[in-house]
Every structure is written in structure tokens, then in C-alpha cells.
UniProtKB/TrEMBL annotation:
SUPFAM superfamilies: Pentapeptide repeat-like. It comes from the Bacteria. Signal peptide: none annotated. Pfam families: Pentapeptide_4 (PF13599). This is Pentapeptide repeat-containing protein.
Length: 211
């Protein structure tokens, strides 16, 4: 699956995330931010555009309805941040901590989560199109009533993740690992799984496999 990468210029000027308070609107663009700390804040409807953020901390911050386009996050901590109603497009999260993040009712398009921690993250009622989860941990993540289109999980940990009321048709989880996940049999139709995973799912059907 080909995903559009963020369109970010080289040699961007350095800024601090708190510079956003000096803007007429809560937005930053065409810059690079490093080592900023912006925790326990409330700043809804932020717009970040064509920029890079590295080694930043945004824990417990309310970013409701945030708008991200052409953004790259590296080594950033969003633990317990609120990003409900977000619009996230052509964005990469690399080696980021997103423990318990609220992504409910968000819209994702051409997004990559790489080597990131998303345990207990909530994606309920979100739409994900062209989203690639790569070597990330999503234990007990909640994907309730989501719409998936061209979504892939590559070498991820999905233990106890929940996909209640979410169709996995066309979704590839064959290289990912889990002891148990929550999903209904009808929603599994068309999901791409490995042989071992097929054996695991057979238990949902009450099938006993005998060698």
C-alpha cells in the first residue's frame, strides 16, 4: 500500500511550541520544534502544517479537534492527551508514546505510526484510510465502531485490542501478535490473517482442531 508522505521543506527555522500563543490563531507552520514541553494545557482547534516536532512532551494536554497536515513527530510523548475530533493527514508518528490518547471521532488519512506505543489508546467512532501501523504496540487499544479503508498492522502487538462493531475486511494483521483480541465473527470476514491466527480465531466458532 502506497501512503503519501508528509510534504515538509528542508532547513526549517527552529521555534518553540509556546510560540503558538504569539500567533493570531492557534497554529504553527513551516518550522521545526525541538525539546518543547507543553503539558497539562488546553488548546483546542490547533492547526499544525508542514513542520517537524522532535523530542517534545504533550502529556495530559487537550488538543481537541487538532488539525495536522504534513507533520512529522519523532520521539514525542502524547500520553493521556486528548485529540478527539482530530483531522490528521499525511502525518508520521515515529518512536512516539501515545499511551491512553483519546483519538475518538478522529479522521486519519495517509498516516503512519512507526515504532510507537499506543496502549489503551481510544479510536472509537473514527475513520482511518491509508493508515499503516508499523512495529507498534497497541495493547488494549479500542477501535470501537471504526471505519477502516486500506489499514495495515505490520509486526504490531495487538494483545487484548478491541475491534467491536468494526469490520476488518481487507485489513492485514497477519504479521502481528496477540494472545486475545475482541472482535465478532461477522467483522472478521475478509481479514487477512496468518495460519496460527486462523487457529486462534477458530475458537470463536467453537471449532476444535485435531492434528
Amino acid at each position: 500500500m502506497k501512503i503519501e508522505t508528509p510534504n515538509i521543506p528542508n532547513d526549517l527555522p527552529l521555534k518553540n511550541f509556546n510560540d503558538i500563543f504569539y500567533e493570531e490563531d492557534p497554529e504553527l507552520e513551516l518550522c521545526e520544534i525541538q525539546d518543547s514541553v507543553f503539558e497539562d494545557e488546553t488548546l483546542p482547534k490547533v492547526r499544525l502544517y508542514r513542520m517537524t516536532l522532535k523530542n517534545c512532551r504533550f502529556t495530559n494536554t487537550d488538543f481537541s479537534s487538532i488539525d495536522l497536515t504534513d507533520v512529522r513527530f519523532e520521539n514525542c510523548d502524547f500520553s493521556n492527551a486528548r485529540m478527539s475530533g482530530a483531522s490528521i493527514h499525511r502525518t508520521v508518528f515515529k518512536n512516539c508514546k501515545l499511551l491512553g490518547v483519546d483519538f475518538t471521532e478522529a479522521r486519519f488519512g495517509n498516516v503512519v505510526f512507526q515504532d510507537s506505543l499506543l496502549n489503551l489508546a481510544s479510536f472509537g467512532n473514527s475513520k482511518l484510510e491509508k493508515v499503516n501501523m508499523q512495529e507498534s504496540t497497541l495493547e488494549r487499544a479500542d477501535f470501537y465502531d471504526c471505519t477502516f479503508k486500506k489499514v495495515e498492522f505490520h509486526s504490531c502487538s495487538l494483545n487484548h485490542a478491541s475491534f467491536e462493531s468494526t469490520s476488518l475486511k481487507g485489513v492485514d494483521i497477519s504479521t502481528s501478535a496477540f494472545d486475545a483480541i475482541s472482535v465478532s465473527i461477522p467483522d472478521l470476514k475478509g481479514c487477512k490473517v496468518s495460519t496460527n491466527q486462523a487457529i486462534q480465531f477458530s475458537a470463536l466458532l467453537g471449532i476444535v482442531i485435531v492434528d
